[in-house]
Design brief:
The protein is an alpha+beta fold. It has 10 helices and 14 strands. Helices cover about 40% and strands about 25% of the residues. A hairpin with a 2-residue loop joins strand 6 (about 320-330) and strand 7.
Length: about 450
């Protein structure tokens, strides 16, 4: 009997070992699943938080615009956007862990904000107006948004340092003190896109009208076009990397210049540069923006772009990005925007994005304005201090409008207000922000 038990030990040990291995593998698999779930939750928290941050930034922006608009219809549009964004913000807040009370409690005001905006929009649609007590409420909402955005920026700064405050809060670890703000009165929210210049996204069409009627080129001809565009003396090596079809058939290539490796797309039809971008370390700023803008203007002229005017610019990591628009008969054509990037260390052009230009640029048959500049100015909110005006063409709702662009200010904040030159309708408002990194229009 004893011998039989002894004889079974190797089999038992083998079975036990197998079970232990299986248990170990199972435990490791479960740990991996838990880790993946944790990372998934963290990503969900961070995505919801970033989206909420964007919504909050938009809230503050459009609340400002409610003080600038002189159009009841435009005010209704802004309030409608606020109401819709409040719903989107609340959906994001539902994803965040309940332990984020310092944030989630503060942002519960989006429900009240949505209701308030919807009610005010309804009153305007029935012929009512924004009364002075409404303006006081709107000012309080705007100030609240400003304070909350500052607090949200603290959390975003931690996220960008590689910390995970949202996951820590979900696990019970407290966030840093985000301050005590009383948000029980009311509030507002809504999303808006940030632009590095008015109308920087053009009209979003897929047909490149500027290339119509042009013949196709070979890959060798595309290489020659790329060299000429960059500058023959700057290119140390250039080679074809492939072909693409979005948004148009292109030859794709790379080249070495002093500043680093650049990637380009050259359209098969017409041999135009669709984009050029650089992969390089941050540059040391030596040249100032005004000098580089003049150089970029000359660069475009030498490459056949014609009369181009610099619009807005931004600076980042020693590189300057400038938005240019063609000018026809003194009228800027915003749908045809071109972005040019320059190294502030060498002064050379290292990037270009010409999709809007190639999509939209044709000779326009410009309408004659039905309103004079003075008549259009009368459509503005009388509280605005107007500094200047000019005619321009802007993209709007998949079409184009001839408009008066008014540069104006209110309470030390600068705006661009666009009035339809044919109907007198207020079309759009941008808030201008200028700092050491350039100019932004929101």
């Amino acid at each position: 009997m004893f011998k039989k038990r002894i004889a079974r030990w190797p089999a038992a040990v083998a079975m036990l070992s197998a079970l232990l291995v299986m248990l170990s593998l199972y435990t490791a698999a479960q740990a991996e699943k838990l880790n993946a779930l944790s990372e998934s939750a963290q990503a969900a928290y961070e995505r919801a938080f970033y989206e909420t941050a964007e919504l909050m930034s938009g809230i503050e922006n459009n609340l400002d615009k409610l003080f600038v608009t002189g159009s009841s219809a435009r005010a209704q549009d802004l309030l409608g956007e606020i109401s819709r964004a409040a719903t989107a913000a609340q959906n994001n807040l539902d994803v965040l862990p309940a332990s984020l009370s310092a944030i989630s409690e503060s942002l519960k005001f989006v429900n009240q904000a949505g209701d308030y905006a919807a009610a005010l929009a309804s009153r305007l649609s029935e012929g009512g107006r924004i009364a002075e007590d409404d303006r006081e409420t709107l000012r309080a909402l705007r100030d609240t948004c400003t304070s909350l955005n500052a607090l949200i920026d603290e959390v975003i700064a931690r996220l960008e340092r590689g910390e995970h405050p949202l996951s820590a809060a979900a696990a019970g670890s407290p966030l840093p003190d985000l301050g005590n703000i009383d948000l029980n009165d009311a509030s507002v929210e809504y999303p808006v896109l940030l632009y590095d210049g008015p109308f920087s996204d053009g009209r979003g069409e897929s047909v490149l009208r500027a290339l119509e009627g042009q013949s196709e080129i070979t890959a060798d001809e595309a290489k020659q076009a790329a060299r000429r565009f960059i500058g023959e003396d700057r290119v140390s090596a250039l080679w074809l990397t492939g072909e693409g079809d979005v948004p148009a058939p292109c030859y794709e290539m790379s080249a070495y210049v002093d500043e680093g490796l650049v990637s380009l797309a050259v359209t098969k039809r017409g041999g135009q540069i669709l984009f050029m971008m650089i992969d390089a370390a941050p540059a040391e700023p030596i040249f100032d923006a005004s000098r580089l803008i003049a150089d970029a203007t000359r660069f475009l002229s030498e490459r056949g772009y014609g009369d181009m005017a610099a619009s807005y610019w931004t600076e980042w990591d020693g590189f300057l990005t400038v938005n240019f628009v063609p000018v026809q008969d003194g009228v800027p054509l915003y749908p045809d925007l071109v972005k040019v990037e320059l190294s502030m260390e060498t002064g050379e052009v290292v990037g270009l994005e010409a999709l809007n230009y190639l999509t939209n640029h044709v000779q326009r048959a410009l309408d004659r304005p039905k309103l004079s500049e003075g008549e259009a100015r009368e459509r503005l909110n009388p509280s605005l201090d107007v500094a200047g005006a000019r005619l321009c063409v802007i993209p709007l709702e998949q079409t184009e409008k001839l408009a008066y662009e008014f540069s104006a200010s209110l309470e030390d904040t600068h705006y661009l207000v666009y009035i339809d030159a044919l109907t007198g309708d207020e079309l759009v408002i941008y808030r201008l922000i200028e700092d050491e990194n350039g100019q932004l229009a929101m």
